[in-house]
Amino acid sequence: MEQLIFFHDHIMMILMMIVTTVSYTMIMLILNKNIDRNLLEGQMIELIWTVTPAMTLFFIATPSLRLLYLMDEINNPMMTTKAVGHQWYWTYEYSDFNDMEVESYMINQEESNQLRLLDVDNRMMLPSNTFIRMIVTSTDVIHSWTLPSTGVKIDGTPGRLNQASLMFNRNGLMYGQCSEICGTNHSFMPIVVESMPINMFIKWM
Fold this sequence. Notes:
The chain is of the alpha+beta class and about 200 residues long. The chain has helices at about 1-30, 45-70, 200-205; strands spanning about 80-85, 90-95, 100-105, 125, 130-140, 145, 150-155, 160-165, 170-175, 190-195. It folds into 2 domains: about 1-70; about 80-205, Immunoglobulin-like (Sandwich), CATH 2.60.40.
């Protein structure tokens, strides 16, 4: 997630430079009263406005490609978890710990002190400051396991295992939802991850 934030700042800096340059050029052209009716072409200016966008795209694409590889790379994960999408709930498997499996359903809206359409009966518990391999699949239709606050979105496809690397830098609750239209109750299969210190996670297991 930290690398995504750096990439966002990098892109915003380039966009601000482009907006500033284009705005300045437009204002100067509007205020300029001198018109050369005999000017039909300018090879130098055409070369500049061809090379400059190409170089700009290069500076955008280079960190973007690097980030794609970083997101797929697993840095010696300490544990592996698996999320399986169903119509319309999630199951979480902790294969490193005696094949433990937890079913996660959305909590009834009538229950008090709960976030509407976001809280579940069994949260996914994960340790913080730990490299985790996250595997996502599905048993019926295409689902998508998404945690917006961490920048993670993994499609769950029947018959296929998709993976990503996770590492939470802080403890707390993170909320998400299925991000793929998967049927009638697509809106009612939320995701809640509770990140905790590794010693508390071991006690929970």
